[in-house]
Automatic annotation (TrEMBL):
The keyword Transport applies. It comes from Candidatus Dormiibacter inghamiae. GO terms for cellular component: plasma membrane. One of its GO terms (molecular function) is potassium ion transmembrane transporter activity. It comes from the Bacteria. This is TrkA family potassium uptake protein. Residues 1-126 form the RCK N-terminal domain. Gene3D superfamilies: NAD(P)-binding Rossmann-like Domain. Pfam families: TrkA_N. Keywords: Ion transport, Potassium, Potassium transport, Transport.
Length: 140
């Protein structure tokens, strides 16, 4: 599977590391070159890593094209900003026709709206609250 990840923070780099080499071709895009160095130094990407790094804005259609979006089976948008994630997701889905698009959305209200629009998204705010609620309920 050809996977394009927008955002090389903790989640993006972890996803890239886990997907790397498991019958996947992984490309990760981030605006900050230092993002790639920081995680490479921590050993997330080994010497034999096939992860490709592209520096630039994941909401720029031309940059996404250079990153291989036209051949991508999946785009995962996990930058630190809801607006960037949604823009990248919409461009992938509506401009390039990527079949599987997932965006991280921190704002629960926005997440619900985008889900209603047909965009796959997840909200760590909701997931975290649900997990803690379940953890404290299970202990009683």
């Amino acid at each position: 599977m050809r996977v394009l990840i927008v955002g090389c923070g903790r989640v993006g780099s972890r996803l890239a590391s886990e997907l790397d080499g498991v019958s996947n071709e992984v490309t990760i895009v981030d605006r900050e070159p230092s993002s790639f160095n920081k995680f490479a130094e921590r050993g997330l990407f080994g010497e034999n890593s096939g992860v490709r790094f592209v520096v630039g804005d994941g909401t720029d259609a031309e940059l996404l094209r250079r990153a291989g979006i036209e051949e991508a089976d999946c785009l995962i948008a996990v930058t630190e900003g809801d607006n960037r994630n949604i823009m990248a997701a919409q461009i992938a889905k509506h401009v390039f026709g990527v079949k599987r698009v997932v965006a991280r959305i921190y704002d629960p209200i926005r997440e619900e709206t985008y889900r209603e629009m047909g965009l796959d998204s997840f909200c760590p705010t909701i997931e975290g609250a649900n997990l803690v609620r379940q953890m404290i309920s299970d202990s009683s």
